[in-house]
Amino acid sequence: MTPRNNQPLVTGVSPKEGPPGTRITIRGENLGNDPRDLIGLKICGMDCLLSAEWKSSSKIVARTGPGKGKGDIIAITRSGGKGSCTVGFRGYFLQIGPLQDSAVWIDESQTVRPNLDHGRPTASAAAKEEDDPLGILDEGDRAKLTEDELLEMFHDASGSMSLENFSPGWYLLEHHQNASFEDLKAGLSFMKRKASQRSEGPITIVRSNLMSILDCLDSLTEMYKKYNEDDIRGNCMNSYAVLLMQAKSCADGLFQEVLGRKDKADSTRNALSVIQKFRFLFHLPLNIQRNIQKGDYNMVINDYEKAKSLFADTEIKIFKKVYREVEKRISSFRDMLYKRLKDPHNTLEEQKKLIRYLISLEYKGDPAWECLDNQQKWLIELLDDCKDDHIEEEKNCVQENLASNQSNNQWKPLSRANKSPTKSGLSRESSFSSLSSSDHQGSWRFKTPQKVLFIEDITDIMMQHFPDFWKLGQSYFTRESEKGVKIDTSKHGKMKLMMTEIITLFANFVRAAFLPESLENMSENEREKLGVWPSSGKSEHISGAWLPTCVRNIRNCANTLSALDSNSDSVMIVLNELAFDMRTNCMFTLLKQAIMDVKNVYTKETWVVETDDESGGTTQLPALFENIVNETVQHLHEVVVMNKAPEPEIFSQRPIQKEATQLCSQLLQAFAVCMEQLVFTPPLQKTENKHVKITIGQDMELEQHDDPIPSLDKRLIIMLSNCNHTIEVVIPRIIENLTKHGYVEMEKALKAAQEAYSALDNRLFLSYIEQKADPILGIMEVNMYKGGFNWKTWKNPTGVRKYLKDIVMSLIEVHAEVYGIFPKFVMRVMKKITESVCEELSRLIQCVPDFNAGGAIQARLELEALRSMTRIYNTPKVQSCFKEAFDCIPELSEEGKTVVDQLLDKFRATMKIQLMCFQPELSPSTVKRAARLGSMV
Q1: Ranges for the IPT/TIG domain (predicted)?
Q2: Nearest-angstrom CA–CA distance, 803 and 862
């Protein structure tokens, strides 16, 4: 006996209801150890073992039989016997139409009209026709439309679904006038589900109703055997066959119209199925147009490649027709992409995308190379247009300036006459601070020159567009990863030539504007293509002030473009040479302009002397000179010192080093020329008379009225002081600054400057001594013998005579003048003048033929007085002069020596204050009092 604990038990089923042939899943316990253990399965009393699929001991999949109503699901196994069930399944039959396949017997009393001859349907059939195919209820307050109203709206149409002139709109207005759009959408879904259920083919019917079909075949076989056993005449089967054929002919005639519509509907359905299945191709032309309008080019290309792979070789006419339309749209799309690619204003990423699109669309040609060629021509055109525009603007500016100069000629002299002298200070008006000091430069002072604007624009063009051109060229030769792209390596040389052409043209345009002498080897035609810039008197001066800015732009451009590829030295060497030449030209130009500014700085001399303890008395001129040099060095700091990685040092070449040293030497020596010119040929275009104030120390001021230009002797001593301050203070500071900024061989420049300023100092000193000594020496002999004085007849010496006092006051005046400008310079001047005075006095004494006793006393007294007074300025020459003079005077008696001592003491007492000027320690008040006494004498 089978154990009870192995009895099958069904605990679940899904779904719980359905028509015959429904596939259900049965779940439970002990449903068999393997497929062979399952020996029976009944659903609603019908055996369904043949359709059962054993999955596991807890799961079986099967199809239901023709059982109707609710029943149990019973599983039978060898191991557990007949089982039980805790759930049930409800079977029901669908209402099958006359044209639908069915595996069970259908009661046609409700579907086939019994009175077909009369053509009047039964009530049940009419009711069946009136079933709602949408499965929605029409509930609403609006009254239904009448048949007449519907006929007015739909001519030659009908609302019956069985007629050929069926109108869906009529049907909806007639049966679902109050339905919403959402209800209609739900009804459409219902119709689709019903249609999918009716679309099951014969194979599905057979598979789901296999047991019923086998039962029918068995029944037919048994019937055939029975008929053969009961057939007495032997031809009974033939008569039945004839009857069946007649029935078939009658049925064909009866359903011919319906079957024809069914075939037509099937063909339409098949066509719609094909359209639905290949809707990608049929919708592709419209989708291409829409995606192009939206800018979704990747989608267009992907759809085209997909269509090409599927339908390029098709033989179906409709597919060929649609595919030709797709090719037509793609051809227009390809042309549009190529036109966009020809636009040079596209960014680099846009160009790459367009090239990639054209390659994917199998464009005939090489779009990448054509884009490169177009970009090169466009870039060259941009550079050429930039050059032409700025040359034209420069010509207009020159013409306007010439017209302005002609109109201003009437008032320029008046303007110059009313010009006041420059105030004392360190400010200056040069090519660096204000571009120009001339009156007619006023309109140019705050106007950027065209050449500078040209440099800014042309470098902007190169830095903005050339990197994209270079990157596009590099990507052209690195496209191995792209599918179907073959790289033409023979174009490497062409690409290099294209880049070289652009860079060379850019460099030549810049050289034509700033370095035209570097293009002398070009032919005349080539030179004209690069442009000829108009020249004017002020343009060169202005361009020099802006040259550092231009050099900075060129260097930034060269460094930016050189950084694209450090290996392309042969291409970028043109830029590096241009930057180097611009740097050297800037350095030489600014140094030359500084030399001219220094030479012309004499026009700004006001002769206002300012003194301090260290520098003595100097005017503003040395400070102006130092400022000019320092500003020039500062302007050239970026050009000379700041070398970036790929750039050579500016002094790496010996000729440039040599010329720079020579210009620096000329710059340092130019101030000597300026000072010499101020001394001997001062400018005459001074305007109004004013007083010049010379401050001596803290207490003494010397004023000069009427003429603003001092006398020659004062100019000499002022310039001597300036020269000394320049050679001792200014020049060393300038040399230190130049050396710090990288200028080479400054020792040579310092030596040359020292020689030049020493020579200038010697010339000025000799001229000053000549100016001061000649008046003193010229009147010594006259004053010595004034009043009929005779050394041989002089009998009553009463003291030092007036001529010697005049000499003393003249020396004091020279002392005061030199001390007021530069106290350290007093000893040098006074020694030289003292030598001249002593030499002249010794000559006069030596020329005396004979002395009497009184004359001898007088001569010795005056020599002693002069020697004691000038003892601080004693030199070997002075000593020699006094010795020679004393040797010519007869020896005095003791009484005569006493007289000389007494008179000498008297002289010292009466001229005590004057003689204080000749003491080693000198106070400013003493100098001031001595100067006043000198002026009274």
Answers
A1: 8-79
A2: 10
- List, for residues 173-188, the tens digit of each pLDDT value: 888 888 888 888 888 8
Give the start-end residues of each E strand in 575-691.
610-612, 616-618
Q: Please tell me the distance from the alpha carbon of residue 760 to that of residue 46, in angstroms, as a whole number.
A: 140
What is the maximum alpha-carbon separation in the chain? 215
- What is the number of alpha carbons within 13 Å of residue 275 lying toward its C-beta? 8
Tell me which long-range contacts 184-188 makes (C-beta under 8 A, separation of at least 24). 184/134, 184/136, 186/136, 187/133, 187/134, 187/135, 187/136, 188/134
Cβ atoms within 10 Å of 589's Cβ, excluding its own: 19
Strand spans (E) along 94-184 = none
Residue 491 host element (H or E):
none
Of 408, 474, 468, nearest to 442 by C-alpha is 408
Cβ–Cβ < 8 Å for 858, 797? yes
Q: How many CB atoms lie within 10 A of CB 613?
A: 7
The phi and psi torsions of 511 (rounded to 5 degrees) equal -65, -40
Strand partners, 12: 27
C-alpha neighbours within 13 Å on the C-beta side of residue 198? 15
Give the end-to-end CA distance of the chain in Å, rounded to a whole number.
170
Contact predicate 43/67, CB 8 Å: yes
Three-point CA angle 447, 398, 550, nearest 5°: 50
How far lies 678's CA from each of 426, 487, 637, 683, in Å?
18, 75, 32, 7
pTM of the model: 0.59
Helix extents (H) in 231-311: 236-277, 279-294, 297-311
How many other CB atoms sit within 10 Å of the CB of residue 853?
Answer: 16
Identity of residue 780: M
Structure tokens at 780: 């010594």
Radius of gyration of the chain from Cα atoms?
A: 63
In this structure, what token pair is assigned to residue 115?
A: 């009175």
Task: Outline where 118-209 has alpha helix (H).
Answer: 123-129, 147-153, 168-175, 181-198, 202-208
Flag residues of the chain having pLDDT under 70.
1-5, 94-131, 137-141, 143, 162-164, 196-204, 208, 232-236, 404-446, 479-488, 536-544, 566-571, 613-615, 641, 644-646, 684-707, 920-937
Contact 33, 11 (CB under 8 A): no
